[in-house]
Amino acid sequence: MPDQKPVSNMENVPDLSRRKFLRVLGIGGVIAGATGLGAGTWLTTRDPVEARHPWTQAGQGEDVRVRALSYAVLAPNAHNRQPWSVDLSERDIVTLYCDLDRRLPETDPFDRQITISLGCFLELFTLAAAEEGYGTRIALFPEGAPDGRLDARPVARLQLVVGQGQSDPLFDQIVARHTNKEPYDLARPVPGLDVEAILAASGAAGRLRAAGTLEDDRIVALRDLTWRGHEIEVFTPRTLQESIDLMRIGKAEVITNPDGIDLSGPLFDTLRLSGLISREQLADTSSTAFQQGLEAYREMIFSAMGYVWLISDGDTRAEQIAAGRAYVRMHLEATARGVDMHPLSQALQEYEEIAELYGEAKQVLGARPDQTVQMLARIGYGPQINPSPRWPAASRIRTT
Ligand SMILES: Cc1cc2nc3c(=O)[nH]c(=O)nc-3n(C[C@H](O)[C@H](O)[C@H](O)COP(=O)(O)O)c2cc1C
Fold first, then answer.
1. Most buried of 105, 137, 177, 313, CB within 10 angstroms?
2. Nearest protein Cα to ligand 1, atom 7
3. In sequence order, what DSSP letters do the residues of 143-179 get, joined into one string?
4. How many angstroms separate the Cα of 232 from the Cα of each of 11, 139, 253?
5. Distance, CA of 388 to CA of 5 (rounded, Å)
């Protein structure tokens, strides 16, 4: 049960919006010069619309498995790596694999977050199949669960059973759900009843527990904790570099690789063209690009108006999958209620430098030392945002 005390404006939040960032840099003129277009015209063409097509094409295809897949690929997933790949060669069966090249070895050394992401995928697949009346029987790790990291064996075997699926209202939210990474409105508390409904929608039971808070003191503690987690990640060169390698800077890069960290839109294309942002600058913690990124992240983290999280008793692959299924259900319910949600996983990660902070996170979140905090997300109300890029569903089907 969340504490329902409304949160007040407690933090001294830096006043840095993207628009102000552009104005401060005073580089509007660069655009016209570099592109030969009027700045206004050029700015309106910067959205990588092609990379968002999977959001409008969901539900198409001859085969129910392909239609369900087209919704499943819209699942939230760590760093938007989209680690799924499916085999459809067996009739009425979908075999799900992890695309092993899409893991995050530095920040997710045991593939825990990648497995959670595959759980999100499985839940959306199930919801989409049920919408057409099909039940989905899922056998996890049908050839055995790996002892260590994920391997080439299947993560799940899904059998569609006609007439066994029951439509779930959360299905309607799949194409409306987006992770809102913008600052949230500090003047708009989240109603306690909405948080209760979000936690209930998780379906968490048994060895998995969903919890949340709207309580001032805990919000202050969690803002601080998630901020320190971010600082550790970006000041640890190898974990920073992992993110930088996944950054898609500007429209062209996003269209070529519709995954990873999307830095598209007029602001980033302008900065890129004017030489004010590059991978090298972002890796240099003394550069303006890095410092501005840090400030933007700070504004976002310190605008959390509440949190929800998931704790599991153990940390088996099955529990990670269950956490993913529960997480995406919470996010779909939040979407139905107009509440924005944004996971902040830095303090929950398993690399050496973050271990002490993770211990602190468990304490603040009420987890025992032997339990695992699988997900932690801030909630609130952000501005409207675009859907994140996706590879088309067809490109995730194995051909051999
Ligand atoms: C296991 C997991 C961990 C995540 N951790 C973070 C995080 O630490 N920071 C963040 O900004 N987003 C995080 N996300 C959200 C993803 O970045 C987001 O789902 C992805 O970019 C796709 O965007 P979408 O959810 O809007 O479709 C996480 C998502 C999952 C499933």
1. 177
2. 344
3. T---SSS--SS-SEEEEEEET-----GGGGGTTT---
4. 21, 38, 27
5. 33
SS3 308: strand
Please tell me the residue having the least CA distance from ligand 1 atom 4.
78
**Is residue 343 in contact with ligand 1, taking CB distance under 6 Å?**
yes
Q: Is the CB of 226 under 6 A from ligand 1?
A: no
CA of 344, closest atom in ligand 1: 8
**Which residue segments constitute the domains of the chain, with CATH numbers given?**
52-174 (3.40.109.10)
Q: Is the CB of 117 under 6 A from ligand 1?
A: yes
pTM of the model: 0.92
Reported as a single tens digit per residue, the pLDDT across 95-127 is: 999 999 999 999 999 999 999 999 999 999 999
Q: 């400030």: which residue's tokens? A: 295
Ligand 1 geometric centre to CA of 76 (Å): 6
Count CA within 13 A, CB hemisphere, residue 296. 15
Nearest CA to 332 among 323, 341, 320, 319? Answer: 341
Q: Which residues, listed in sequence order, are joined to residue 249 by a DSSP beta bridge?
A: 263
Distance CA 321, CA 366 (A): 22
Nearest CA-CA partner of 379 in 202, 187, 174, 189: 189
Strand-pair partners of 306: 379
Pocket lining: 396 vs ligand 1, CB cutoff 6 Å: no
